[in-house]
Specification:
This protein has 19 helices and 17 strands. It has about 600 residues and is an alpha+beta fold. The strands form 4 sheets. It has a 6-stranded antiparallel beta sheet. A 6-stranded mixed beta sheet has the order 8-14-15-3-16-17, sandwiched between helices. It has a 3-stranded antiparallel beta sheet with strand order 9-12-13. Strand 10 and strand 11 form a beta hairpin. Helix 4 packs across helix 13, helix 9 packs antiparallel against helix 10 and helix 15 packs parallel to helix 16. The chain is elongated.
Length: about 600
């Protein structure tokens, strides 16, 4: 519920505050006094375009503020939190500034937000109906929405199920279309992956093989040098003659010299423990020299100088290097990297190879969802047609009370064909079936028809109702739909235009009835409507010869009588008008 609206430097209003309570609040005033600025303020707080021309002459910035109790609206509280704003003990503070030059700014719960956020928030807080807003009712989507609200929770639950299926249908459509479009790309990618996997499988590289082959190639390329070094080292250790028959090592080879040293120390080891320890070390050294000599001989004998093996190793290394260059992941291009690519490619190949199966599965799911969607649309159509009959009866009753007893009203539910069609794609990518007319709300079209008097042919409301007639139809619908919108507040801007006499009284009576289930604010020029108010504000204009200023004043009982008499007679002080004003107030009070 809206608690207060404050306006500063907006239009002809310098600074004004309108406090709101439950029930019906009316705002009246002379033509041009600025009473519609209250509606304009609500519109600004609900994200409407900020016109710099709204800023009061002589001011740089106009400002609108509001306090709204949202304690009973948890979804609004959550939306405010998403904006980064806070509530003040369940009360939402909203503000909008309009700059005479520059951009407007919007605030929700103390946080600056885009105007679009205000619009989404405002849809949950208030429904505004004015001469311009009546055109909303002329749109087919709005008429369908009104009928669905009237139909109640049974249709709402069914529509929720349908919309979930419809959303999935559209998602499947996009996925199938993507599969279809990317078929050639998948084929090319699959061919490249399969070629690479075949090459790697044929080469059958093993982890660490490239390093082992590098070491083997180095050894084979230097086989003669390695053998010569081993033979010479063995001769130096053991004293054996080289292949040329010459001994090496000078006067004594290492083995002979070590043996002589060992014998000399053995002779004296009993005389000193230190010499005994050194004798043991020399003996151990002689054993190691003998073992090293034997190992060098074996190494020299085992050196492979086969040029064919060297060529084979070089060829294998070249193959692995080429695989690493094309399929290795990372800078080192190792066999391990090639094997890692092979594993990933195998997974991707399986995905690509299963794309056709995926397409077939999606088409099967799509066909099942389509059948369910058609079944739900038929059920939705039945509920809508049933609700349409009840809505017609209720609205015609209201129109009779609004001094239109001979008007005929009809809600026609038809089936859309071709609009927003969704297509079902078969496994081969061709159209297997077409969901003609499927849309977010089903396949139904709703149109309101109307005839003002008996004998006149019915025509669509959008092409036959005058401004005053449309105002009364709008009001009749709002009264019938009261409580189904979930919006806590209604604002009416002169929806009684073109209405007078008994019909005006009935408009006031209907607004009062609507205010029993929602907060209602009405800007009106009819005293018959204003008489039904629980609170009455008057916008009064003053002119000091330089600037015109309007103020908003709450009227007490006496002030209401004076204001109603002015609205009745066009002037203040008329005894007849005052008496009539009191009579209107007494009649309205008796009915509230």
């Amino acid at each position: 519920m809206w608690e207060e609206i404050r306006l500063r430097s907006l239009g002809v209003i310098d600074d004004a505050s309108v406090e709101l309570d439950p029930g019906l609040t009316v705002v009246t005033g002379e033509t041009g006094a600025g009473k519609t600025m209250v509606v304009t303020a609500v519109g600004l707080l609900c994200g409407q375009r900020a016109d710099p021309g709204l800023v009061r002459q002589g001011s740089d910035v106009g400002r609108v503020e509001a306090r709204v109790d949202v304690e009973a609206l948890p979804e609004v509280a959550a939306a405010v939190a998403d904006c980064g704003g806070d509530l003040d003990e369940g009360v939402l503070l909203m503000a909008r500034t309009v700059a005479a030059r520059g951009r407007s700014r919007a605030f929700v719960g103390g946080a600056a937000v885009p105007a679009a956020r205000l619009e989404r928030l405002g849809e949950r807080l208030v429904a505004v109906h004015g001469q311009a807003d009546q055109h909303r009712l002329l749109r087919s989507a709005a008429q369908l929405s009104a009928l669905d609200r009237f139909a109640g929770p049974a249709l709402s639950a069914l529509l929720t199920d349908y919309r979930q299926g419809y959303a999935r249908l559209r998602a499947l459509d996009r996925e199938i279309a993507t599969l279809r479009t990317q078929a050639s790309e998948r084929a090319r990618e699959l061919a490249l992956l399969e070629h690479g996997l075949a090459e790697i499988e044929a080469a059958a590289p093993r982890p660490g093989e490239d390093a082992a082959l590098s070491a083997e190639e180095d050894r084979l390329a230097h086989a003669d040098t390695l053998r010569g070094a081993a033979v010479q080292a063995q001769a130096l250790l053991t004293g054996e003659a080289l292949a040329t028959g010459d001994a090496v090592g000078g006067p004594a080879d290492a083995a002979t010299a070590t043996s002589l040293a060992r014998a000399r120390l053995e002779d004296v080891r009993t005389h000193d423990p230190a010499v005994a320890r050194l004798a043991d070390r020399v003996a151990d050294l002689s054993y190691q020299l003998a073992d090293a000599g034997q190992e060098l001989a074996s190494y020299a004998d085992g050196i492979d100088t086969d040029p064919l093996r060297l060529a084979a190793v070089q060829q294998r290394r070249s193959l692995l290097t080429d695989l690493g260059r094309r399929y290795g992941l990372g800078p080192d291009r190792s066999v391990e990297r090639v094997l890692a690519w092979s594993e990933q490619a195998a997974v991707r190949t399986a995905e690509l190879a299963g794309a056709d199966d995926r397409g077939a599965a999606l088409s099967t799911e799509r066909a099942e969802l389509l059948a369910t969607a058609h079944r739900l649309t038929r059920e939705l159509g039945k509920l809508r047609r049933s609700a349409a009959g009840r809505l017609v009866e209720r609205v015609e009753t209201e129109l009779t009370a609004l001094a239109m007893p001979h008007a005929s009203f009809d809600v026609r539910v038809g089936t859309r064909s071709g609009a927003d069609s969704a297509h079902v794609l078969g496994p081969d990518g061709t159209d297997a079936d077409t969901a003609q007319g499927l849309g977010p709300d089903g396949t139904d079209e709703v149109e309101l028809w109307w005839a003002a008097n008996t004998g006149l042919p019915a025509r669509p409301l959008a092409r036959s109702a005058s401004g005053g007639e449309l105002s009364r139809v709008m009001l009749a619908l709002e009264v019938v739909l009261a409580g189904t919108t979930g919006v806590p507040t209604f604002v009416f801007d002169e929806v009684d235009a073109g209405v007078g006499g008994k019909a005006a009284v009935e408009v006031g009576r209907r607004l009062a009835r609507l205010s029993r289930s929602a907060q209602v604010v009405a800007v009106t020029h009819l005293p018959q409507v204003a008489a039904f108010a629980d609170r009455h504000y008057r916008v009064r204009k003053t002119d000091d010869g330089r600037v015109t200023t309007s103020g908003v004043h709450r009227l007490d009982s006496a002030g209401r009588v004076t204001e109603l008499s002015r609205m009745l007679a066009g002037q203040e002080g008329s005894a007849t008008a005052l008496a009539h004003a009191r009579e209107l107030l007494d009649t309205a009070a008796a009915e509230r």
